[in-house]
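Predict the 3D structure for this chain.
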Amino acid sequence: MQYLYIATIFAGALVCFLASLLLFLRRKAGERSRVILAVIVFFSVFSYITRFISLCRGEVPHQIVSAGMLLLANFMVLSYILYPIEVISPGWLSLKNVLKLLSVWLILNAVYFISLWSGVHYTQYSSVLEMLPNAAKFEVWFRLILSLLIFLPVLFIFYIHRTRRYNNTSIVWLRKYSSVLFVNILAYVMVLLLNHQFLHILYYYLSVGCSLFIVYMELFDRLIRKPEADFHGDLNADSNIPAGAVLSEPSADCKNPLLAERMNSYMQNNSAWRDPDLSLNTLASELCTNRTTLAKVIQECGYENYTGYINRLRIDSASKIRKIR
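Done. Predicted structure below.
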C-alpha cells in the first residue's frame, strides 16, 4: 500500500505539471485567467513533490491536521477562487484586492505564529475525530476552525458579481466549477476526519481528476470573449455580407447562449458558410470549443444538425443577394 501511495503522489505531480504547462502554453493575449489557473495547478505540483521526496527519504510527513498543513490547505482553496474571479471580472485582481481576499488567512497565520511564540504546544493528532475529545483546548479548537473554513471559499464564488463590460462565462460554467471544487474539498475533509492511507490514495486520484476537469473546462468549455465594445462591432460592416443574413437566435432554454452568440457573430462577420471546406470540427476549433458542445448548441438554435445549419445560411445568403440585384 505504501508503494502505491508513493506512486500515486508522483503520478499526480506529473499530471498536474503537464496540465499547468498546457494552460501556460495556450494562454491568450490580454487574458490572465489561464496563467492564474496554471500557477494554481502548479501549487499542487509543489505540494505533491515535497511529500513525495519526504516519503522516499523515509521521513514522516507532517500530520494533515497539524495547524501548518491546515493553513496550507486553506491557502490552496483560496487560490482556487482567484481563477473564477479573474474569469468573471478581468483585471479586478490587483495586489490590493488579493490581499483583501487573503486578509482572514493572513490573520489566522498571525494567530498561529503568536501562539507558537507564546509557548502553545500543538499536540500531534492523526485525524479530526481524534482531536474532538480535547476540543476545549485552544490548540484543538483553533484547528477545528481551520477545518471548517475550508468550505467558505466555495460559497464566496456565488457572490461574485459579473461586470457589465465583460461576459466571459455563464452561470452553468460557474455551477460546474463550484461543484467540482466542493467535491474536492469534501473528499479532503473526509481524509481529515479519518486519515486512512487508502482514503489518501483515493483523494489524490479525485483531486487530480478535479484539476484536470477544471483545466478541460477552461480550454474547451469556457469561451474567452473580448469586451462588449470590441466584440459587438457592426455586423454588417462588410459590404459583401447581405444585410439581414443573421442566424437564428438561441432558444430560451439554451444552456450555452454565449457560445450560440459567438457562433452567430463568427459566421456573420466571416461569411464562413461560403467556405466549402468548413466542417463541424473546424468551426469548433475556431470557437475554442469541442464538436459535441457545438453540435448541441446548433440544435438548441432550432437546426436539426450542422449540415442543416450551414445549408440554411447558404440559402438565406443566396436569397438576400437575389433581392439586392
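The radius of gyration is 25 Å.
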